[in-house]
Specification:
alpha+beta; Glutaredoxin; 110 residues; 4-stranded mixed sheet; 4 helices
């Protein structure tokens, strides 16, 4: 058996933290950063953290939508989530367990 350490796909799948930008199909017609979720503390926190990161990057502010119907439209099972130019970059957590600024920088091509 190989003794090399393996990444933990369970955690990765659960949080989507740093999900590859090509891992999900791009949502057409969505520009900028969109934060989706149900009204909740993690959603509020994520929206705030994303807005702060975008200010640091001198980028357009995010649109925050706490509409459960939009979660269905985008096929998001584990809200809250962040989409950047139509690609899912984070879901299932409030953005505190990964470098959100770095994720946004990569996703926006800054």
């Amino acid at each position: 058996m190989p003794s090399e350490k393996r990444k933990k796909p369970v955690t990765f799948a659960r949080t989507c933290c740093g999900v590859s930008l090509d891992a999900r199909e791009r949502q057409k017609g969505v520009n900028g950063v969109l934060v989706l979720g149900r009204p909740s503390a993690p959603y509020d926190r994520l929206c705030q953290v994303v807005q702060q990161a975008l200010v640091q990057l001198d980028a357009e502010p995010a649109k925050c939508q706490d509409d459960p119907k939009l979660l269905e439209v985008y096929g998001i099972i584990t809200p809250p989530a962040v989409l950047c130019n139509g690609r899912l970059i984070l879901c299932g957590e409030d953005g505190t367990s990964c470098d959100l600024e770095e994720l946004l920088k990569t996703a926006l091509g800054i």
